[in-house]
Amino acid sequence: MGRSTASRDTRLADVSLLAAVHALGGRGEQLLAIVGLQNAGKNPTRQGWVDGIRKTNGGIYDNAGLTCSPRNFSPANFGKVVTNSCLWYVSVKDGKWKVFNNGKPVTGKIVGDPALIKQYESSAGTGVTTTSAAPAT
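Below the sequence we write its predicted structure tokens.
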């Protein structure tokens, strides 16, 4: 015997909600790409697109209001590791969104081996210590 139509409709609704969550996850990045193109000049180049993002609003992008903290794309912040996190946790219950933590974002700092965190903070995330000094001859 096959499953009932009600069961199938419930499964389809669950899939639709998951598809919406997935689509929303990429929405901020899509809008960021548009910001870069809008500010890249009449004949956009790769560098013009990057500059368009870094210079718009001082390089601060709020993810179209979809996240709880803005991202910093400014030249001064380039290559730095983000040490703080801010997320909303949600689930779907009875076909409705349920936001955990009473709708407030969950914030925190990177955890792990302090030596590794320090290494990545001082190396722009490459794991290789960098310097502005001229190479030794």
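The two ends are 80 Å apart (CA to CA).
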